[in-house]
Design brief:
This protein is an alpha/beta fold. It has three domains: 121 residues, Probable tRNA modification gtpase trme, domain 1 (Gyrase A, domain 2, 2-Layer Sandwich); 122 residues, Four Helix Bundle (Hemerythrin (Met), subunit A), CATH 1.20.120; 159 residues, P-loop containing nucleotide triphosphate hydrolases (Rossmann fold, 3-Layer(aba) Sandwich), CATH 3.40.50.300. It is 46% helix and 17% strand. The protein binds guanosine-5'-triphosphate and magnesium ion.
């Protein structure tokens, strides 16, 4: 056992509910809980088999009944933390929960830090770091598809894939090491030829995995979708129409929206974080200026941009400036107010908007919105990638480690091309192996681990 102490925390959200659960984990769990529990069957918890539920009462030191509870006893190692775990189902509400927790502390338990149960599951070797992050994603998941993706990761999809890649590398490393240590066994052919092909194949696989990082991040955090354009083109109207509620203020006064208005939209399971922004134009108004600056930042940070153009008024000077800003981004051009008719010639369309997805809508009449939603959905589910069915990277940390692994392997491939001998790139192979390992949390520095777990909620 790695840990000497026994931790306890309220694991359900703060507030009043039907039930509230206190989770206790550690080697003295059963002993500590038994001291404050009086089962209806009068039997000690110490004699109960694992994975059983017992009805009874929590009794204070003074002998008063604190709460009526169900005691769920789970003995190590088949538990969340791989330690002895008890979950006490109390009546919901802060009073009984805190009273029970206080009794546990008196008998020797310690209050758990944020994420400490999951941290123990990790350090006791039940789950790896990619799975830890999946637990966090499951708690925070926004749609069914993002939940599915997170559950897939918790099951170890990504971990299995990474380990498979590591074992390919390990075999190559072993072969090289034999040839360095026992050159007399070397064949006539240079050994590099044996695995040149394998390295290239592995690089291809790692690069495809890297491509999933964007999808993974978008599924986790929502696709950041900035609605931009000059004032009065109908940005806030579009936000409201997509959300089917009056979230942002709409008026016919140019410069209505000043701050960025954010809202979630779920399109067939894919979460979008919509950002309605201030109309971009030259202005002397101090507040509007800040708003315009924020709009420009939104363009930089967005995964997808919906640039609105007033089809009735046509493409004007102010539009051209914004077009310039978004032209290298992933952008859809939305010609709004089509109910008023279009005054944009085909020639102008071809000149300014060619090569990008262009859609005509009326935010006011809610026309063309389904087409827009389909285009947004297809933007995420490109080609035949089925979100949720394959291993995906879901955060920056994992992405960075993978990039480092690819860089190391690139060096190996380069050295092979140059005809260098194995001992020149053995180190890069080891590096690649290590970087892959850090995706699943092998040999990770303590600070990173602590930082990660501090982002969890209490009791998890
Ligand atoms: N006819 C018509 N009017 C629209 C349409 N969409 C928006 N409008 C009108 O255009 C005006 C401006 O709409 P907003 O949604 O406030 O425009 P905005 O782009 O958010 O404007 P700012 O916040 O000032 O940048 C309002 O009077 C809307 O009713 C549309 O599809 N058709
Ligand atoms: Mg607006």
């Amino acid at each position: 056992m790695l840990f000497d102490d026994t931790i306890a925390a309220i694991s359900t959200p703060i507030g009043i509910g039907g039930i509230g659960i206190i989770r206790v984990s550690g080697k003295d769990t059963i002993k500590i809980v038994d001291k404050i529990f009086c089962g209806a069957d009068k039997k000690s918890l110490l004699d109960k088999p694992s994975h059983t539920i017992t009805y009874g009462h929590i009794i204070s030191e003074e002998g008063n009944i604190i709460d009526e509870v169900l005691m769920m006893l789970m003995r190590a190692p088949k538990t969340y933390t791989k330690e002895d775990v008890i979950e006490i189902n109390c009546h919901g509400g802060p009073m009984p929960l805190n009273a029970v927790l206080t009794e546990l502390i008196k008998k020797g338990a310690r209050i758990a830090d944020s994420g400490e149960f999951t941290k123990r599951a990790f350090l006791n070797g039940r789950i790896d770091l990619a799975q830890v992050e999946a637990v966090m994603d499951i708690i925070e998941s926004k749609t069914e598809l993002s939940l599915k993706q997170a559950v897939g990761q918790l099951e170890g999809k990504l971990s299995r894939q990474i380990k498979e890649y590591q074992s390919i590398l390990m075999k190559i490393i072993a072969r090289i090491e034999v040839s360095i240590d026992y050159p007399e066994y070397d064949q006539d052919e240079p050994i590099t030829e044996d695995f040149e092909e394998e390295i290239r194949e592995l690089l291809d696989k790692l690069n495809s995995l890297l491509k999933t990082a964007d999808t993974g991040k978008m599924m986790r955090e929502g696709v950041r979708t900035a609605i931009v354009g000059r004032p009065n083109v109908g940005k806030s109207s579009l936000l409201n129409a997509l959300l089917e509620e009056n979230k942002a203020i709409v008026t016919d006064i140019p410069g209505t929206t000043r701050d960025v208005v954010e809202a979630y939209l779920n399109i067939e399971g894919i979460p979008f974080m919509l950002l309605d922004t201030a109309g971009i134009r030259e202005t002397e108004d101090t507040v509007e200026k800040i708003g315009v600056q924020k709009s420009k930042t939104s363009i930089e940070e967005a995964d997808l941009i919906l640039m609105l153009i007033d089809s009735y008024e046509g493409i004007v000077e102010e539009d051209l400036e914004i077009l310039e800003k978004v032209k290298d981004k992933r952008v859809f051009y939305i010609l709004n107010k089509m109910d008023l008719g279009s005054n944009i010639s085909q020639e102008k369309l071809n000149k300014n908007l060619s090569g990008k997805i262009t859609l005509s809508i009326s935010a006011k009449d809610q026309d063309g919105l389904n087409g827009l939603k389909q285009a947004m959905r297809n933007f995420v589910i490109k080609g035949n990638v089925t979100v949720g069915n394959e291993a995906t990277l879901s955060n920056m940390r994992q992405k960075q480690s993978l990039i480092h692994a690819i860089e190391s392997l690139d060096k190996v491939a380069e050295a092979i091309d140059l005809g260098l001998s194995e001992d020149c790139f053995a180190i890069d192979l080891h590096d690649a192996y290590g970087h892959l390992g850090s995706i699943i949390g092998e040999a990770l520095k303590d600070e990173i681990i602590n930082e990660l777990f501090s982002r969890f909620c209490l009791g998890k």
